[in-house]
Every structure is written in structure tokens, then in C-alpha cells.
Amino acid sequence: MINEKIKNSTEEELHKILLNTKKITITTHVSPDGDAIGSELALYFYCLQRDIQARIINCSETPYNLQFLSGIENVNVYKEGDKEYIMNSDAVFVLDLNSSPRIKVMEDVVLQSKAIKIVIDHHIEPSFFADYYHIDSASASTGELIWKILNCDKQLKITPEIASALYTAIMTDTGSFRFPHTTSETHLIIAELIKYGADHVKIYEEVYNIIPYPAVLLQGEAYASSELFYDGKLVVMTLTKEIFKKTGGLDSDIEGIVEHTVTIKGVQAGVLITERPNDPEIRISFRSKGDINVRELAVELGGGGHFHAAGARLSNATLSDAKKLVIEKTGKFFEQPLSLDSGG
Ligand SMILES: [Mn+2]
Predict the structure, then answer these.
(1) From the CA of 30, how far away is ligand 1's center (Å)?
(2) Which partner from 85, 121, 170, 311 sits 20 to 30 angstroms from 103, CA to CA?
(3) Angle between helix 160-173 and helix 184-195 axes, rounded to 10 deg
(4) What is the pTM of this model?
(5) pLDDT class for 336, splitting at 50, 70, 90?
């Protein structure tokens, strides 16, 4: 499904537009990940070099494992008082997403703002809400796209802060350089980032190897909840509000759990369904292997994502409704011989 209204701008065109601004807002999707936050910070630091006033404003909190990044104190969660800043921005850069509902409470303000809206992203099937798009679904991360845009500036100073932010973005979205979209070009960019001061040992350690105890308890509960369906090809894990309260785990602590579903021998698709305190929506995360296109399921449920990694949120549903629905909908992958397009 190609949205005909969307024309892709080149890196050079976007870079020119950026240089013509004096004041910008940078934002990203709900539940930001390493690619989201790293891309935002790199763009933010570049704006400082170019005397462009920039403010990062997100609709949700930064997860704990990204708090080590330099400049993280400049990543703000949207408050009423930010409305005026967004309204008066020359441009709003929307990173790592391509449909406006994913900025949640900020959606109305961003859409109403006279600022030009610019989407930089690597997901497929964008919706039309912005003025400019730079979308490359072959790219493993938004971080790589930001790197290419910044490199349109021959005077770019790649500081250790920029290098670390982009390293984090690319490392997290490539599954530490394992996922299929990781290319030799990705590695060439990474080589540059290390050369300019990204500390790859520290970044991996901070992002993946320092897990708060409540998060470990939450993970344990997720694994304990797992159930197999369709002869062990589907695994479903659930986390209830009560479990969050019991363990003291945070929303952001679920990051990474769903990745483990598809490491179970024989499992081809994994689902984590979460019901969280202070969130009326049920969150569903999908992972898959081989020919199973979980993006298709996520889209049916109003969400989106990639072929092997996708998600959706359901309102007006209970956790058990969501579970039933997911089991029913995944059935088409397992109850008949696979006849899906083999995408990648
Ligand atoms: Mn991304």
C-alpha cells in the first residue's frame, strides 16, 4: 500500500530545510526505544552546532536503560506549557514513526501547529500528515538516516555525544547488528561512530546489562505466564496490572521481554500482552521468525511495525479479550500450510 500523496525528500533536501529553521521541536513515538531517543539526541546536538534552537518533547518517558546518554536531561516529557513552544516552532521533526496517533497526547498540538512537519523514519506504509518525508524502509534504523542527513553538512563536527547517540540508535534497532536489514553500510557507519568516540563497550553494558531487580521479577512473571498454542508454534505471555504492582516493575521494564519469545525452540511467533497501571489500553507486542508477517496482524488491530516485530494497542478491551483475539488471529499462520509472501 503506497500512499500516493507522500513524496520522499532526499537527505540534502531535508538538510536544507533544517538549516532554514531557527526553532524546532523534535519528537518521537510513544514508549521510545534506543533508536528513537538516540536519533533525537543526535539531531538535537547538531542543532546546537548550527545555532538552531531545538527542544526534544516526547509523549512518554525515556526508559531507564537510556538514561546514561549524554544530553538525556534535554529529553522532555510533554507538559501543557510545551504547547506554545510547539505552536511557535518553525518545524517539528517526527522521528522513527510515520503515523501521527503514535505521538499520543501531542498529536493535536503538532497537527495544529503551523510548523512544517517532517517525518524521518524507516517503517513501511506511512500515513499522510506531514509536509516532508524521508522514509527508507530498507534502513535498519532511523539513526542511520539521521547520520546521512547530518553528513550533508561538510562542516559537521561528529562529537562523542553525537557518535554515542547514533551508535545507541543503530545498535538497538539492529538487535546488536544481527537483524536482516543490517548491511555492510551499517557497519561502515558504526566504524565511523566508534572512530569519533562512541564507546561500544559502555553503550552495550548500559543498554542491556544493567537490569533493575524489579524488572527481573517482571521478566520472571512474564516467562511464568507463557502458554504455547498451535503445537508449540505460538507462545503468548501476559502481564497484568497486579503483577506490575507486585513486582514494582515499570512500564519501560517490559522492553526486551518479547524478544525472548521467539528464542523458544519451535516457536515461530511470540506475543506479549500487557495491561499496565494508569494506562487504559492493552499493549500487544509481536515477534516472529521466517514467513510469519506479524506486522499484518498488528495493522489489523490498529497498530504497525515491521515484518518480524510489530505492536498494537487496544482500547476498550480486557487483557483476556486481547489474548483470545490474538490467539484467534494468529491461527491463520498455523492451521493451514503457510502460503504467505516471503518478505524479509
Ligand atoms: Mn527505529
Answers:
(1) 12
(2) 170
(3) 150
(4) 0.87
(5) low
